[in-house]
Amino acid sequence: MNVYVLGGGIVAVVVLLIGLIWAGARTGTLSQGQRIWLDYGNFYIVAIGLAMVLIGFLIILQLHQPQDGAEALGFFTALTGALVGLVGTFFGVKSSADARAGAETLATNAGGVGTTTPTITIDPPTATTAVNQPHEVTATVTSVDGSPAANVEVTFTVTDGPDSNTTSPAMSDEFGRAIFTFTNNGTAGTDTIEAAALGGTGTARVEFTT
Q: What is the pLDDT of residues 25-48, one digit of tens each?
C-alpha cells in the first residue's frame, strides 16, 4: 500500500473525527447561552491528542513503510483504536458534564428544593389611609411544600416611614395567617411593613395622607 495513500486516509479520518467531536461540543449549552466548560476544554484536549497521534503515525510511516496489505491493515487498525479511544473519552466526559449541568438546572428551576425558607405574603400589599388612623395587615406564611405554616411566630416591623421602628409579634393561625395592627402617629408619609418568620420575609406599604 502506498504510504501517501495511507497517510492521506489517516488525515481524512482525523479531520472527520475532529469535526464530529466539535459538533458534539456545540450541543452542550446551558441556559442564557453559557457553555459547559468541560465541552470546549475536552474538545481542545482531544483535538491535540488526535493531532499528536496523527503526527506520530505519519513519522512511523516515513521511517517504516508497510511492506504488504496485512501490515498496512494492522497499522491502520492500531491507529483507529487510538483515535476511537480518544474520541470515546471525550464523549464519556461530555455526557457526565451534560448530566451534571442538567441536574443543576433542575435543582435551580425546582423553586424551593433544598431550602426550608417559607414564603410570606402580606395583604394588602399597598394601601392609602388618613393620618392618625389605624392600619391592619395580614401576613400569610406558606411552607416550601405549599402547606400553611401554623403556630409560628411572625414578627411585624415598620422598617421605614413615619412610624418606623414600630414592631409587634403575632402567632400564625391554622391557615398560616397572622394579623398586625398599628396606628399612624399623625405624620404623613409611606410606611414599609415587614413580616418575618422562620427566615423568610415579606413586605407591604401603606401611605398615610392628610
A: 555 444 434 444 445 445 566 666
Output DSSP code: residue 35: B
Can you give the pTM of this predicted structure?
Answer: 0.47
Domains, the chain, with CATH or none = 3-109 (no CATH), 119-209 (2.60.40.10)
Asked whether the beta carbons of 70 and 23 are under 8 A apart, the reply is no
Distances 183 to 56, 167, 178, 179 between C-alpha atoms, Å = 86, 12, 17, 14
- What is the rounded distance in angstroms from the CA atom of residue 108 to the CA atom of residue 142? 20
Please give the Cα distance from 67 to 79 (Å, whole number). Answer: 17
Determine the Cα–Cα distance for residues 89 and 79; give it in Å rounded to an integer: 16
